[in-house]
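User: I've been trying to design a sequence by hand for this structure and keep getting stuck. Would you show me what you'd pick, starting by listing the structure so we're on the same page?

Assistant: Good idea, let's start from the same input. This is the structure you sent:
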């Protein structure tokens, strides 16, 4: 029995295997429609979510399985004080696999240590979001045709953005990857990510506050939302929330084959005028997330 709490729980070879499986699901969906007949996925979402929760549920249904869902902490025994550990033990009696989102960093890890079924971290606080990273990786692969030799710009909230932290951890393991870190000084990438991932692995990176000055260098631009829910101070959030807004004018120096990504939801970081640009891939990311979650569920249930 195996869980995925951090993207580093998967080797590069396993990620490549998941990409291959997802591509086969896309090409041959009928081959997978009954794969998990009789199996049940429990989605435990103690933090608001649209894409992640629904994509897990869609993934399980498209594999022929069923879903048990908790989408409101107030409607669960957690509101009575039940621990994450006990919740995991209880849900293990009902389901075959768990997808958990929780506002507290480390909660899915605790669940995985107490459950008798696999647990997938669907996002814990500002910490990790491995299945979003799998969606991102499949998107990059489908748009660029490779996962090596890329300059990836990460723009916006790099401090609290769990999707950014997971993506850096994953892509740093591929060859000839360069990161351009674009953020206000208050929202720079945490020093532990810089030291433990970038510096430790001799990954080339650049730090800047000016998106337009580096636009022409980028193969991938990953925009992020300044997350109100991660701020303790409303004044700081209001001051920083509109730091970067991507408009068609800011893409004048961009490569013709730039891939524009965003984990969503967006507030106003990307103008809707860019939605019809062929370089916009953020809604493709959503669909790719479903395919990669299908592949991961299959893997953890021994059906891949």
């Amino acid at each position: 029995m195996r869980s995925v709490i951090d993207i580093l729980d998967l080797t590069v070879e396993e990620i490549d295997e998941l990409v291959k499986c997802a591509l086969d699901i896309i090409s041959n969906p009928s081959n997978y429609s009954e794969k998990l007949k009789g199996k049940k996925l429990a989605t435990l979402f103690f933090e608001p979510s649209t894409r992640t929760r629904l994509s897990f549920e869609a993934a399980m249904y498209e594999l022929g399985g069923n879903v048990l869902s908790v989408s409101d902490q107030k409607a669960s025994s957690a509101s009575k004080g039940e621990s994450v550990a006990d919740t995991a033990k209880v849900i293990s009696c009902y389901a075959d696999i768990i997808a958990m989102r929780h506002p507290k960093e480390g909660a899915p890890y605790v669940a995985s240590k107490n459950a008798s079924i696999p647990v997938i971290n669907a996002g814990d606080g500002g910490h990790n979001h491995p299945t979003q990273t799998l969606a991102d990786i499949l998107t990059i692969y489908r748009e660029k045709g490779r996962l090596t030799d890329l300059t990836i710009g990460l723009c916006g909230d790099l401090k609290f953005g769990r999707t950014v932290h997971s993506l850096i951890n994953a892509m740093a393991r591929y060859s000839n990857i360069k990161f351009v870190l674009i953020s206000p000084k208050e929202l720079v990438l945490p020093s532990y990510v810089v030291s433990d991932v970038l510096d430790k692995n001799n990954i080339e990176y650049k730090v800047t506050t000016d998106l337009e000055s580096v636009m022409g260098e980028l193969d991938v631009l990953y925009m992020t939302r300044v997350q109100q829910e991660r701020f303790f101070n409303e004044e700081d959030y209001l001051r920083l929330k509109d730091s970067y807004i991507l408009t068609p004018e800011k893409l004048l120096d961009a490569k013709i084959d730039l891939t524009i990504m965003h984990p969503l939801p967006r507030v106003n970081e990307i103008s809707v005028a860019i939605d019809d640009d062929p370089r916009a891939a953020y809604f493709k990311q959503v669909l790719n997330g479903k395919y990669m979650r299908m592949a991961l569920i299959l893997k953890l249930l021994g059906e891949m």
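That's my pick for every position. To get oriented when you compare it with your attempt: The chain has a mean pLDDT of 91. The two ends are 14 Å apart (CA to CA).
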